[in-house]
Every structure is written in C-alpha cells, then in structure tokens.
Amino acid sequence: MLAGINGVGHNDAAGLKSVSGVGLARLPLDGWTCQGERGGAMSRINDVGGMDGFPRIQQELDEPPFHADWEAHVFALNRALLGHGVYNLDEFRDAIERMPPQDYLASSYYEKWFHAVTTLLVEKGVCSAAEVRGG
Fold this sequence. Notes:
Elements: E1 10-11, E2 17-19, E3 22-23, E4 34-35, E5 41-42, H1 69-83, H2 89-97, H3 101-106, H4 109-123, H5 129-132
Antiparallel strand pairs: 1-2, 2-3, 4-5
Helix pairs in contact: 1-4, 2-4
C-alpha cells in the first residue's frame, strides 16, 4: 500500500489487505504465467486474462469521478506532467504495470496512478526518492 494514502481497502481477520472483501491470501498469485503473443511468459499482475478467483466488479450507482480530493489532484498532476512531456502515456502505463503484485492488487485506481507518477518523477530525475517520501 502506498504511504500517505489512508482509508482504502481494509484488513481482513488474518491482517491481510483486502480489496472488495477478498483477502490477498485467497487470490491466485502463486505460480501463474501465461504465454504472450510471441511465446514469452508474461508475469505482470495486470495481465489476468483467463484467471479465476477475483471478485465481481461492484458498480456504484451515480459514482462520482473522484472519491476524495487527493484523487482529483493526482489526475490533474498526471495530466500536467504528460502535457509537458515529462513522460508519455506508455511510460505511465508501464510504471503501473511494474508494481509488485501485492501492491497492485491492494491499491485503488488512483493509488496506482499516484505510484506511477511518483515512480516516474524519480526515474526521470525530477525529484529524489527522499523528496517523494517527504524528506
């Protein structure tokens, strides 16, 4: 889970972060691979086509675009950084897809965005890891 963002998900009885009530320990994370178009194994957690064990998607009626102010700020920051050419959309997507599987599954949509933005800011030399952590 990303530091500095609170209140997303919850801990189940085993103390594991849960997403939509499914504890991470119950998700099929071990030993999964699939073949890419060119025959190579794909190992990124976002590539879950054909996998079982995930909860049904719960749609909110009249869902707002942002559930908290910080989500709108992350959205705006990402848009500004993309617009100024700090990174491109492919790099942004790749930064999300490189998240460790446990972090990816435990993170909300905009937590993934926040992770990608902060990762790319450090990788591009815009700021240091210490600055991202608030130091």
